[in-house]
Amino acid sequence: MRSLNCCLSCNRFDTSKLKVIEDLLDKTAPTLMPCTSPVFQKDVLKKSIILNNRNKNKDTKNDSHNTKIDDDQRKEEISYFYPNLDTTIWSRTCEKEVIEPLTGIITGHIPNWLNGTLLRNGPGSLEVGSYKFEHLFDSSALLHRYEINNGKITYQNRFIQTDVYKKNHAAKRIVVTEFGTRRVPDPCQSIFSKISSIFRSADASDNTMISVYPFNDEYYTFTEYPIIHRIDPKSLETLDKVNLAKYVNIVSHTSHPHVMRDGTVYNLGMTTTSRGPAYSIVRFPPSKFSEDNGTKIKKLSMFDQAEIVATVLPRWIFSPSYMHTFGITTNFFIIVEQPLTLSLKSIFMQKLRNDPLCAAFRWFGNEDSQIHLVSRKNGKAVKTFVTEAFFFLHIINQYETQDGLSVILDICCYRDPKILDCMFVEAIENAHENPDYSKFFRGRPLRFILPLKDSELRVLPEIGSTKTNNVNIRKSGRKKKLEDNKKNVHDVLQKKSAAFKLPNAKAYVVPELLCDLGCETPQINYKFNVGRKYRYFYAICSDVDRENSGMLVKVDTELKTKLIWCERNVYPSEPIFVPDPEGKNEDDGIVLSSLIWGQERKTQVALLILNAVTFEEVARATFETPSPVPKCLHGWFSSLVP
Q1: Which residues lie below 8 Å from residue 452, measured CB to CB, with a gap of 6+?
Q2: Is 598 found in the same domain as 459?
Q3: 600 Cβ partners below 8 Å, 6+ apart?
Q4: Fewest C-beta atoms under 10 Å: which of 97, 221, 323, 407?
Q5: Does one domain contain both 482 and 569?
Q6: What is the DSSP string of 420-480?
Q7: Cα–Cα distance between 289 and 269 in angstroms, integer?
């Protein structure tokens, strides 16, 4: 396997780190107990299974000392495996699309008010002819659709007809280099053709496999290249391809734009300026219409009106940060500049050598992460905070406090980007042999409280000497053994975020823990709470070493409590909150999640409906499909039924 660690060059700098994030991750790590009836059986488990049987058959007259040694050996062996995780859910291939809707078998009661369409996007096939993609992000994009209509639920799926999908299947090989996979060379292409292809943007992948979002009443699929595909929300047919770079100066963008109440869409993109690359916020206003004899005619589309409304230069001009999401509040855009960067100097050689995109990534683990607050009024950065290095994909939510003194920013954080390594196909297939696989996946939802006034910053105590405001401050490199610094989860959750003034006048932020579980693909009551004060979020658990690795989580950010839904051998997708139209509280509504099963139930898929308040199941619709269904990533719910 081509490890991302080989691609991430760690330049070392002599900077001080408080290591609070690392402590929060370590102190809330679970202890995986041996499972008597593993969900997932694999050859690599035979050793531990044999050891289990041997211990069971031991003479009961053995003294307690020998028994303790045997038990310790058994636990040490089993700790290398994840018996409740079926990693094949990611490597499945959809062999036959579901064009005509399937009707599900419904159990429970569907709320009368619940009608609409849930669209999902994600990996659909890792195979092209006899070749196979090497990274999950490279898989051909597959759409899923659930329609809820008057107590009935149907299911469909369909591949997005991207240019790269059509080229690959016409040639029966991988013809475009992806994030983690080299293209299979064309034997007829000369060296001069290879060099010229470096300068052709048409050779970039348009595999919009990550998410789906509405622009007015049209739906588009996204990846991080500025190509989006319009899809039919009823048939899932691919209708159009839009190159956003033709409308606005961007070379990439995040997969998660923000859709505001008035229909305006904002996204964070990378632009080219006279001073080099820059982070830019792009605004897409609602389409403008004119009337002709009572008929609405689109005058200007959202893309026609696209404009850059804010720009921030990266701290390293030739190594801009990788960004998957960004934040927005009433008065600010929030850009989190993590130390995972894309080396522009390496891109030319990466293309010339036919290396995958990940070869151009660089991880500066001894540098800070930076959080920029950018004014929505004038588009300029008004304040920058620093915190220790972390990697992230998803921001949960962000808002300004009522007193106007702070901005609250909640993020799903990891200590480094090794989680991207875990998504290489070879790593997934060999996860059960890797004792560090769960550590690489270890992330936690953290809250950063960002004071808007310098007077709110605390004086930084002498490093390594004290404990301030329940936040441990200690010197970089002085790693205590976890056993010597053990604290229970309750104590860890009581610690609060704090912001200190550094000697160089920068504001250093220490986060607090929101939940002791790994949380990913977080969702909120988006329509009413994006960029506003909120209390609850919903997520899938990303801890692969839990007794049940397929869990949905509801987190109360005020009380720091959680509710969990899980079912043995079931793997839920991103939970989508749908508000009750007559609801009064933030969590009045339901949560939707697409389910798949492990092992022999590869051709079953279901839509789960949970009461968002109690987090208990109220209904589900189960479908038998003609071919395996892979796990999906992100989606969007619309209360309209086309």
Answers
A1: 373, 383, 404, 405, 406, 407
A2: yes
A3: none
A4: 97
A5: yes
A6: HHTTBHHHHHTGGG-TTHHHHT-EEEEEEEEESSGGGPEEPPPTTT-EETTEE---TT---
A7: 27
With respect to residue 295, please indicate whether it lies within any of the assigned structural domains.
Answer: yes
pLDDT tens digits for 159-169? Answer: 999 999 999 99
Kindly state whether residues 513 and 556 are assigned to the same domain. Answer: yes
What distances in angstroms separate CA 586 from CA 9, 197, 413, 536, one per listed residue? Answer: 44, 52, 25, 8
Q: Determine how many CB atoms are found less than 10 A away from the CB of residue 509.
A: 23
Answer whether residue 221 shows pLDDT above 70: yes
Is the model more confident about 460 or about 456? Answer: 456
pLDDT the model gives residue 202: 54
Can you give the three-state secondary structure of 389-429, one letter per residue?
CCEEEEEEEEEECCCCCEEEEEEEEECCCHHHHCCEHHHHH
- pLDDT digit string, tens, across residues 418-440: 999 999 999 999 988 888 898 89
- The arithmetic mean of pLDDT across residues 510-532, rounded, is 95
Please say if the pLDDT value at position 588 is more than 80.
yes
- Cβ contact 364:12 at 8 Å: no
If phi > 0 it is left, if psi is from -120 to 50 it is alpha, else beta; for residue 350 that is: alpha
CB 97 within 8 A of CB 159: yes
Q: Which regions of 129-287 does DSSP assign to beta strands (E)?
A: 131-132, 140-149, 152-159, 211-215, 218-222, 227-231, 238-243, 252-253, 258-259, 265-273, 276-284
Q: State whether 313 and 396 are in the same domain.
A: yes
Integer angstrom CA distances of residue 555 from 358, 446, 528, 548, 592: 33, 12, 17, 18, 16
Query: What gap in Å lies between CA 139 and CA 144, rounded to an integer?
Result: 15
Greatest CA separation for the chain: 95
Separation between Cα atoms, residue 151 and residue 166, nearest integer Å: 37
How far is it, in rounded angstroms, from Cα 85 to Cα 87? 6
Q: Are residues 315 and 399 in the same domain?
A: yes
Q: How many domains does the chain have?
A: 2
> H or E segment at 512?
strand 512-513
**Does an H or E element contain 103, and which?**
strand 98-103
Mean pLDDT of 480-486: 41
Cβ-contact 228, 301 below 8 angstroms: no
List residues bridging with 265 in a β-sheet: 259, 284
Q: What angle do CA 562, 398, 285 make, to 5 degrees?
A: 130
Q: Is 309:278 a contact under the CB 8 Å cutoff?
A: no
CA distance 212 to 626: 24
Same domain for 61 and 124, yes or no, is: no
CA-based nearest residue to 218, from 228, 206, 232 = 232
Distance CA 393, CA 197 (A): 30
Q: Give yes or no: residues 65 and 152 share one domain.
A: no
| Burial (CB count within 10 angstroms: exposed 0-12, middle 13-18, buried 19+), residue 132 | middle
DSSP 301-360: -TTTT-EEEEEE--SSTTSPBP-S--EE-SSEEEEEE-SEEE-HHHHHHHHHTT--GGGG
Residue 38 lies in a domain: no
Which domain range does residue 73 map to? 43-78
Q: What is the pLDDT of residues 325-372, one digit of tens each?
A: 999 999 999 999 999 999 988 887 777 788 889 999 999 999 999 999
What's the per-residue H, E or C state across 595-636? Answer: EEECCCCCCEEEEEEEECCCCCEEEEEEEECCCCCCCCCEEE
Q: Is 314 within the bounds of a domain?
A: yes
Write the DSSP string, 521-588: EEE--HHHHTTS---EEEEEE--TTSSSS-EEEEEETTTTEEEEEE-TTEEE---EEEE-TT--STT-
